[in-house]
Amino acid sequence: MRARVHVELHDNTHTMLTYVRHRGAWQMRLHHMFVAAPDEILAALSAFVKTGDPQASATLDAFIERNKIFIRRVPPSELRRRLRIMTEGEHHDLKEIFEDLNRRYFRNRINATITYGPAPRVRGPRRSIKMGSYSADSKVIRIHPALDQPRVPRYFVEWIVFHEMLHHIYKAKRRPDGRRCVHTPEFLAHERRFYAFERAQRWEEQNLDLLLRS
To answer: Domain check: are 118 and 209 in the same one?
Structure first.
């Protein structure tokens, strides 16, 4: 079944492709590097958007890697300047947590900024939640505001922050099949050093519904 496609070009430095289906039409935002993309890349783009095909994803990743020269580099300090930094929540102070973890685990070597991110708008019941993210471009850690509630223990928030701090150290690698691996064996081994690793995992398993409803 055919559908209309609306394409908007951008010059972002981090996200090369986003898409959503709205009222029977696809709305896509693409980095301008795709303007001159050959037919096989456009075919991979179509397959990835329609079905999430892993081979198409690997093809797109390889194309972006080959054309990263066209990604405009903005200094991390400038990217952070454009953000609204909010570290002090009603129940959890991210700045305090970050500085404590940086001192205890990283000898104050993590040069990054942390903030609560905006709560994504969702329609209907939420089925998943991205509790944290790290931007290598801006060196900013974003924590989902759903974690700032009294029923979420501090050690769980610490674990999420610790996880994102590790992304500052361990860069994504390419697998033999061309796909990106962001959680390398070294990353996962380091994560297990967190003092409440298993406790935090158990809490997430038992309380995920609490976060999804927030």
So the answer is: yes
- Give the total residue count for the chain: 214
- Range(s) of the domain holding residue 93: 76-213
Position 42, amino acid? L
Cα gap 158→191, rounded to integer Å: 12
Question: Would you say the C-alpha torsion 203, 209, 210, 214 has a positive or negative sign?
Answer: positive
pTM: 0.65
Q: Which two tokens stand for residue 199?
A: 């406790």
pLDDT tens, position by position, 105-147: 999 999 999 999 876 665 555 667 888 988 877 788 999 999 9
The span from the CA of 157 to the CA of 149, in Å, is 10
Q: How far is 214 from 212, CA to CA, in rounded Å?
A: 6
Contacts of 133 (CB under 8 A, 6+ apart): 117, 141, 142, 164
**43 and 127 share one domain:** no
Read off the tokens for 45.
Answer: 């783009």
Q: Could you say which of 29, 51, 70 is where a domain stops?
A: 70
The total number of structural domains that make up the chain: 2
Which amino acid is residue 192, in one-letter code?
R
Statement: residue 196 has pLDDT above 80: yes
